[in-house]
């Protein structure tokens, strides 16, 4: 299947006033704050963000391993370099991916999260295939993220599977205990408080392994600590979280 000539579309409106970088992309989610990436992965993402690499990237891994963190971090790095980026969770665009992708054309980098959300939807698959080809022609770049490799996603359009398989692949794995410990330490430091080893030990026996769970927990602890004007200690954790 070859891409057809794109139909005429209205010229995208000029972007309005830009939000500060920290509001668009959370400060915790930066390339240099990611813990547990495979060797060379952060360098690949930074090169794509800087415009210095021709590789398109495909992040593969189960839920909670940090795919969204890396997509948002790459977008933040793109914008820090003075270029434009956009992030699209495909679950929010399922069934109308064509309109969503057209609306985001003109960005230097497009980060597409959750490819599995459109797998098996013929219209969405064709729309993504066409968007992929248009981005290539325009010199833009796309970074994809999904829970599985292209062949294991259930995508029905062979040409789309082929395009996705041509991307350089970064495999992500769940954090081990040491990795989770480092995430908690880093995020506590950025919030201005020290997480004592005894408190870390207590938390690591009780918290979820995934990045989203860790982030939500640190946000909750930060708010509670500020409200109570208390340090994060084991007694405080027991009071707040129970057990």
Explain what this protein looks like in three dimensions:
With 243 residues, this protein is an alpha/beta fold. It has two domains: 21-171, P-loop containing nucleotide triphosphate hydrolases (Rossmann fold); 177-241. 44% of the residues lie in helices and 10% in strands. Strand 2 (85-89), helix 4 (97-103) and strand 3 (109-113) form a beta-alpha-beta unit. Helix 2 (41-50) runs parallel beside helix 3.
Helices and strands in order, then pairings?
Layout: H1 21-24, H2 41-50, E1 57-60, H3 67-80, E2 85-89, H4 97-103, E3 109-113, H5 122-138, E4 141-146, H6 158-165, E5 168-171, H7 177-190, H8 197-204, H9 211-228, H10 234-241
Parallel strand pairs: 1-4, 1-5, 2-3, 3-4
Helix pairs in contact: 2-3, 4-5, 7-9
What is the rounded Rg?
Answer: 20 Å
The rough form would be described as elongated
- Mean of pLDDT: 87
Q: What is the chain-wise order of helices and strands?
A: HHEHEHEHEHEHHHH
Q: What is the CATH topology assignment of the largest domain? A: Rossmann fold
Q: Structural class of the secondary structure composition?
A: alpha/beta
What is the CATH homology-level superfamily of the largest domain? P-loop containing nucleotide triphosphate hydrolases
* Biggest β-sheet: strands ordered side by side in the sheet: 2-3-4-1-5
Q: Helix count, per DSSP?
A: 10
Helicity range: 40-55%
Span from first to last CA?
Answer: 59 Å
Uncertain residue ranges = 1-17
Question: What's the CATH architecture name of the largest domain?
Answer: 3-Layer(aba) Sandwich
Put the structure in a nutshell.
The protein is an alpha/beta fold and 243 residues long.
